[in-house]
Amino acid sequence: MDDAACEVRLRNGDAVWIRPIRDTDAAELQRAFALMSEASQYRRFMTGTPRLTDSQAAYFTAVDHVDHEAYVAHSPDDETWIIGVARFIRYPSAPDDAELAVTVADSWHGRGLGTALLRVLTARAIAVGVKRFRAEMMADNEAVLSLLRSAGMTDETVSGDVASGHIVLAPPS
C-alpha cells in the first residue's frame, strides 16, 4: 500500500492532497467533525452525534488498508487540516462487499472533492479485491445521492428517511 499523498485538481480548479488516513489523524478527525454543521453531522451518521468520541476517532483512524481503508483530503497549505474523508469497511460475512462512506467539510461542498475522494478510494478497493460498495444515506442528502448515482449506484431504495444502493466496482480496462 502506497502511503504517499497525491495532488488532485478539483473541477473548480482548486488543488487538494489526498492520502491514506494515519492513526495520528484521530485528533484532527475530531476537530474536522466538530466544525461540521449539525445537518452535515446528522447526514453523515444518521443520528444526532454531537462529537466524535476518542474511541470513535481511534476506530476510524486505525485502518488495516485491506478490510478497512480510509483516505483524507487536505489543502496544499496544511496536511493536518482534514477537509474530507472517504472510507470503506469490508463486510466479514460478504468479503466482496464493503460499506462506503464519504464526508466533505461544509466549506468544501460543491467543488468535486467527494468525487475525487471516491475515485481514489475505488481504485484502492479494486486493488484489494472489493467488488461492490454498499451505501446508506439520508434520503434527503441530494449531494451524496448525486455523487453515488454518478458513480453508478444501482438498486436504489428508500425506506423512511434512509436511501440505500450499491456500486459495482469494475477494474480499469
Helix-strand blueprint:
Elements: E1 6-9, E2 15-20, H1 26-35, H2 38-45, H3 54-61, E3 68-74, E4 82-91, E5 94-104, H4 113-127, E6 132-138, H5 142-150, E7 154-159, E8 162-168
Parallel strand pairs: 5-6
Antiparallel strand pairs: 1-2, 2-3, 3-4, 4-5, 6-8, 7-8
Helix pairs in contact: 1-3
Question: What would you say this structure looks like, in words?
Answer:
It holds the Pfam family Acetyltransf_3. GO terms for molecular function: acyltransferase activity, transferring groups other than amino-acyl groups. It comes from Nocardioides ganghwensis. Residues 19-173 form the N-acetyltransferase domain. With 173 residues, this protein is α+β, with helices and mostly antiparallel strands. It has a single domain (6-168), classed as Gcn5-related N-acetyltransferase (GNAT) (Aminopeptidase, 3-Layer(aba) Sandwich), CATH 3.40.630. The chain has helices spanning 26-35, 38-45, 54-61, 113-127, 142-150, and strands at residues 6-9, 15-20, 68-74, 82-91, 94-104, 132-138, 154-159, 162-168. Helix 4 (113-127) links the parallel strand 5 (94-104) and strand 6. The radius of gyration is 15 Å and the shape is globular.
